[in-house]
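Hello K.,

You asked for the raw outputs rather than the summary table, so here they are, unedited. I folded two proteins back to back in the same session to keep the settings identical. This is the first:
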Amino acid sequence: MEKGGRFVVVDVETTGFSARQGARVIEVGAVAVENGQLTEEFTTLIDARAPIAAGALRTHGISQAMLRGKPGPSDVWPGFRDFVGNASLVAHNSPFDSSFILNELSRLGHRLPNRWYCTVELSRRKLPHLPNHKLETVARHLLPGLPADLTFHRALDDARLTARVWLALTGDL
């Protein structure tokens, strides 16, 4: 990834744990980063009209009631694709997020050929001594003072935090 260029950090919350098994994205958060600064955000809940597995609900706390009246996938993903443009993408555990995002776009007949980077992979390489490489663990190790109003496992907060982790891991912070 070009140092100082624009990239987009993404996170999704889902109805389950596998896009291949039919789970859907119900929240997306994305943060554009340019020259080491968080510059723009894209976030929304998505009414995918799909049941939410109990384990997923326990993880993120997004209920069916919270999704009522929210835009559907066909209203969200074209705007997401426009927001991302041709930027490289970063996610904490990018194989998970990319599988869901690419699946949602594919359902609409869209592709997203952007390059993906993974903060889990990078933290495992640079911080092998950590007990695990969960976002919270890596963030608490790298970043001074996390925001008091931070909500883990909500897409925009996780994307913002992942952006800061990426910047710290790559020496751009």
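The second followed immediately with the same parameters:
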Amino acid sequence: MPPLKRAAIVLLLLISGQSVPVWAEEKGPETGLQIEVPVPLKESKVVFSMNRLAFLGDQPAGLAQMKFMMARYKASQVPAHVAAVFFGEAGYMMLNDAAYGKVRKSDRGNPFKDQIKALQDEGVQFELCVNTARSNGWGNADLLPGVRVNGGAMLRIVQLVQDGYIQVQP
């Protein structure tokens, strides 16, 4: 299967909420594709640095990558400790429906809240930078349930890296 077609299928599965195949464990006999560098999973600590807007269509790339990663770890029964630190221009994704509507001038609510809730249910910890919140006039009451405010995104990422987390920048 061509890489672009495979990526499109994975994206559609992620958006639709369907399970994602564990590509590394498939042989792909219809194409003859062989995995030559398998990626065995080990218990991992990952921090997603979510400070810029990167989308695949209407889907935030970081949320799609988190969902794919969590599905792989779950399918492999390997523990993963994942934190998502939102700040800067991507901070608005952490807002509840009312606050999101004011900021984005929309009456539809936060379109990412269900994905975020599903990722929280899988164990992903979502955080918002105090400086991003303050500079936008947001309080804790403006945030989605379970979103925690940290003492500063850059210092929090440094702290997590010092604690053994690997930083991912979608």
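DSSP finds six helices and seven strands in the chain.

Happy to rerun anything if the numbers look odd on your end.

Regards,
P.
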